[in-house]
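Tutorial, part two.
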Amino acid sequence: MKSQDLPEGCVAHILSYICTPEDIVRLSLVSKAFYSAADYDTVWDRFIPSDFSSTISPLSSSNSKKDLYFTLSDRPTIIDQGRKSFQLEKRTAKKCYMLSARDISITWAPTQGEASQYWEWKSLPESRFQEVARLYAVCWFNITGQIKTRVLSPNTQYAAFLVFQMIDASGFHHHPAMLSISGSATS
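Running the prediction step on this input gives:
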């Protein structure tokens, strides 16, 4: 039996179990049977996190699960009153969260409305968040961030990255940055 002999719904069900999102897009370009099946909600429903509606308010522009998947993977969605972003990694459908500078604790960072000789809060048009923290000069600093474990997927390895832009930086060139990640019992 050839794949084109199977009903589209059956092909869609099979694709949802054996393919990554990247595979489905690639297969839909080479076969009419896969092209039609790739539009079925059952294919894309497996790649959309089951808890996404509790994390992200419903996206009204999404008419199908495929549209919703590409909406969630094409660009970050700002959540938690602008303090975090959520996005699906396009090739694998893995969850990606980013904490804004306002959602983490930075040593010597000024609080709202306070001035600091070390930091300032600044708006940058290229940032996904409303404000970023700009460091002037310190001899050391500590950054602490938290994310509730209930929003993470079980049995999944996660990585943590510090995303920053260096402009006329000195210090980092001479001393390596140390990073540690730890968990707590609270969710």
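The first strand starts at residue 77 and ends at 79. In part three we will examine how such features are distributed along the chain.
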